[in-house]
């Protein structure tokens, strides 16, 4: 690597993109430090030794995210080092791999490793686009043979608004600008052609997407020019590319003597994407025959395998381009036989089986509460996903024996493509408050299994009762060429993918495109071809949608009986603490007694979920009751929860209690609340007032004639005392056990006087210290009322009693 520090700056979508080399990672074959805004990435490219023992190009691309780039430390309490690459990092690596791989010479078999390390992020400029352009610069200036450079850009699109703002394309939008965009498309381009496309869109028309690809050239050409300037300053001399002479001779031999055998092999391979023993058997036979002719001949089976594949692919392309003949006999725009059905699995929340030819996908939908949404941690911050799509393609789906291990990058990529295709039609959580997970079990593969999983997942969502805004279908368009001639193929199978020029997947609705993924094996596609591909894909998509809707015309009106039932209510933010309770006591009680799960957001949105509608409704009523405002005069059916000497506490709404004073229980004097009510009794109560501390006072005296407690009868014409002692929670009294009390005799100064000066009723003493005449009846002296009044007088003199261990006093 040239250790002389060199830098170039490029005007890129109104900002400055800079590339710098010669200072960092001096032992790498080439390195680039790239910066846009405050987002910085380091790209290193290292060339290894030649690998003649393999039949593919040994390129690896690793995208390394560091949390320090965003000033963060991993949230785990036990593990602070970054672990395995996240799905997002793997997808970014695949994006770069698919952009650069087609431009390496076919005969170059040296190991090449590209590592992208994200050093700094500013949350406005995405590092993936900076990284892709930096990789292009590093490869262009290295000694590794590569037919670049390329430029890459993300394009957005905002629709025309009612305020008079015209529709516009957004080249390289910032994170905040992208929030208003209905299109997210990444395009990698050479000087004239497009090499790679990855897109997600909200049902955007084909002509808008095609125009975005066309406008991308304006910015990618600036990047290419800047990279070429860097190569002139610091570029290395390229390695020569060896010609594979032995393979070329083997190709001539196969074309001369084994064409008929290869044609038979093609007919067998049509039925199986992964190939089989037939190819190996033919190679063994050719090897043995060559050795029999000349035992001294140097024959390598790997060379024979490469030559056999080249001749096979050449024959397939020639038939398509010159004869319009496909390997499975279909027309060039014909779709394979399709079948679809829903409700395949009895206990899952939604399921569907989708078949296209021998490609078969079983998609299963699972619904859960919002609390199970996925949390994603990255240098840019944390985000959540409530819709998740996973793709699984096990070895048997290829008809092969294989190792079972971790999820492959291919599976992660296919799942992300199907997820992006359906994301545009998933309802907002305010409409359908569920976390949704789809798993596509691909049971058989022979071309475009990711698009089959998209179609099957649409049906599974509809079977699960998810109110998607529109059904989504997907198709893959291929291309075969010979010289200047090229033919587009609809719905390619595996063999056509391997032998063709591209795999162009397009998913969408009747209204427009929702996802795109383009992989090519050639230097790229012209803009005019992309327009034609979009038209071909739309025609096929409409046919597939028609078959899908015959299986299930619309989403089911209700979710499965086995799916959780979810309700959402909004409570005032200042009531959140009341619902949660001290140490979570209240919310734990609600969950334990109702069996429902309760989740509360900071904005007051409460999500209640449970398998039983009854449990969900019970929790909804409970929380609604806890947070609603009650007004005096409202009546409720409540349950007695506690009984104290001065009254009873009644739960008039779930989780909310009010006190019914003993004087408000029934007409007449009540000695003990237990004589009127028992714990667990259902009683009708009315809200009387809310006191100064916010507590609710209730009454069981209902009706116009019972609004005031009954006054005791007496012979004297003097006003009778009001025994409402709601302001004194020291005791309660009842006369019912001994009938009416004789009237008090008036005495000069030693008798207590009574007044109604207190608005709530009770005793008003005329003397500082009052006492009862104890010379009278012993019954009167031992009456609970007399004892209570005596205690109150004593407490007034000496202060309140300090409660401690109970003691027995003798009088």
Which SSEs are present, and which pair or pack?
Layout: E1 6-12, E2 15-21, E3 30-36, E4 39-50, E5 59-65, H1 87-100, E6 110-120, H2 127-141, E7 151-158, E8 168-171, H3 175-178, E9 183-189, E10 194-204, H4 206-234, H5 245-257, H6 259-269, H7 277-293, H8 301-323, E11 338-342, E12 350-356, E13 359-368, E14 374-378, E15 381-385, E16 387-392, H9 409-423, E17 435-444, H10 449-463, E18 473-482, E19 485-490, H11 494-499, E20 502-508, E21 513-520, H12 527-551, E22 565-570, H13 576-580, H14 585-594, E23 597-600, E24 605-610, H15 613-627, E25 635-644, E26 647-653, E27 656-661, E28 682-690, E29 696-699, H16 778-782, H17 784-798
Parallel strand pairs: 5-6, 16-17, 27-29
Antiparallel strand pairs: 1-2, 2-3, 3-4, 4-6, 7-8, 7-9, 9-10, 10-21, 11-12, 12-13, 13-17, 14-15, 18-19, 18-20, 20-21, 22-24, 23-24, 25-26, 25-28, 26-27, 28-29
């Amino acid at each position: 690597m040239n250790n002389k520090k060199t830098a170039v700056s490029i005007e890129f979508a109104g900002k400055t993109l800079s590339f710098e080399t010669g200072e960092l990672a001096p032992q790498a074959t080439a390195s680039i430090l790239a910066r846009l805004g405050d987002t910085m990435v380091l790209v290193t490219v290292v060339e290894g030794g030649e690998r003649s023992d393999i039949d593919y190009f040994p390129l690896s691309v690793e995208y390394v995210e560091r949390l320090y780039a965003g000033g963060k430390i991993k949230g785990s309490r036990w593990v602070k080092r970054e672990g395995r690459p996240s799905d997002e990092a793997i997808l970014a690596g695949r994006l770069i791999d698919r952009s650069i791989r087609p431009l390496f010479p076919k005969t170059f078999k040296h190991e090449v490793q590209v590592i992208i390390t994200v050093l700094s992020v500013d949350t406005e400029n995405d590092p993936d686009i900076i990284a892709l352009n930096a990789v292009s610069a590093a490869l262009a200036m290295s000694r590794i043979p590569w037919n670049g450079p390329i430029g890459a850009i993300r394009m957005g699109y905002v629709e025309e608004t009612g305020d008079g703002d015209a529709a516009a394309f957004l080249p390289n939008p910032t994170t905040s600008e992208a929030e208003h965009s209905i299109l997210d498309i990444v395009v990698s381009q050479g000087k004239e052609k497009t090499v790679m496309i990855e897109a997600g869109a909200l049902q955007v028309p084909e002509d808008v997407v095609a125009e975005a690809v066309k406008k991308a050239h304006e910015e990618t050409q600036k990047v290419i020019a800047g990279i070429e300037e860097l190569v002139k300053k610091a570029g290395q001399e390229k390695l020569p590319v060896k010609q594979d002479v032995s393979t070329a001779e083997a190709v001539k031999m196969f074309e001369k003597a084994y064409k008929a055998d290869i044609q038979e092999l093609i007919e067998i391979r049509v039925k199986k994407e992964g190939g089989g023993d037939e190819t190996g058997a033919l190679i063994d036979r050719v090897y043995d025959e060559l050795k029999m002719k000349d035992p001294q001949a140097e024959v390598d089976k790997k060379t024979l395998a490469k030559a056999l594949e080249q001749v096979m692919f050449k024959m397939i392309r020639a038939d398509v381009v010159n004869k319009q003949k496909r390997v499975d006999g279909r027309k060039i725009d014909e779709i394979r036989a399709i079948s679809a059905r829903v409700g395949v699995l009895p206990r899952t929340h939604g399921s569907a089986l989708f078949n296209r030819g021998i490609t078969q996908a079983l998609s299963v939908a699972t619904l859960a509460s919002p609390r199970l949404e996925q949390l994603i941690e990255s240098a840019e911050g944390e985000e959540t996903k409530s819709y998740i799509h996973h793709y699984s393609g096990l070895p048997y789906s290829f008809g092969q024996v294989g190792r079972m291990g971790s999820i492959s990058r291919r599976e992660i990529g296919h799942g992300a493509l199907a997820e992006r295709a359906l994301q545009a039609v998933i309802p907002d959580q305010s409409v359908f408050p569920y976390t949704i997970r789809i798993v596509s079990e691909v049971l058989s593969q022979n071309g475009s299994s990711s698009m089959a999983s998209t179609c099957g997942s649409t049906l599974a969502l509809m079977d699960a009762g998810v109110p998607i805004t529109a059904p989504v279908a997907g198709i893959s368009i291929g291309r075969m060429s010979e010289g200047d001639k090229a033919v587009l193929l609809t719905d390619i199978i595996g063999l056509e993918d391997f032998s063709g020029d591209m795999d162009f997947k397009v998913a969408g609705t009747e209204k427009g495109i929702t996802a795109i993924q383009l992989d090519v094996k050639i230097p790229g596609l012209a803009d005019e071809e992309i327009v034609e591909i979009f038209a071909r894909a739309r025609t096929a998509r409409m046919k597939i949608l028609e078959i899908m809707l015959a299986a299930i015309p619309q989403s089911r009106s209700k979710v499965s009986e086995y799916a959780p039932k979810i309700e959402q209510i909004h409570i005032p933010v200042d009531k959140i603490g009341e619902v949660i309770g001290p140490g979570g006591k209240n919310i734990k009680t609600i969950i334990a007694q109702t069996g429902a799960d309760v989740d509360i957001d900071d904005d007051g949105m409460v999500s209640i979920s449970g398998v039983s509608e009854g449990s969900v409704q019970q929790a909804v009523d409970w929380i609604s009751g806890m947070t609603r405002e009650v007004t005096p005069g409202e009546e409720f059916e409540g349950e007695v929860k506690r009984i104290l000497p001065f009254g009873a506490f009644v739960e008039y709404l779930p989780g909310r209690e009010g006190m019914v004073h003993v004087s408000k229980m029934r007409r007449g004097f009540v000695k003990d609340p237990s004589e009127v009510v028992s714990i667990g009794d259902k009683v009708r109560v009315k809200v009387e007032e809310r006191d100064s501390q916010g507590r609710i006072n209730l009454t069981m005296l209902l009706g116009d004639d019972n609004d005031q407690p009954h006054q005791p009868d007496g012979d004297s014409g003097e006003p009778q005392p009001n025994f409402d002692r709601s302001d004194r929670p020291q005791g309660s009294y009842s006369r019912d056990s001994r009938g009416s009390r004789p009237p008090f005799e008036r005495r000069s100064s030693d008798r207590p006087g009574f007044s109604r000066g207190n608005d709530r009723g009770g005793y008003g003493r005329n003397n500082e210290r009052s006492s009862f005449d104890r010379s009278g009846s012993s019954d009167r002296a031992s009456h609970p009322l007399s004892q209570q009044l005596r205690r109150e007088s004593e407490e007034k003199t000496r202060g309140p009693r300090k409660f401690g261990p109970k003691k027995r006093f003798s009088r």
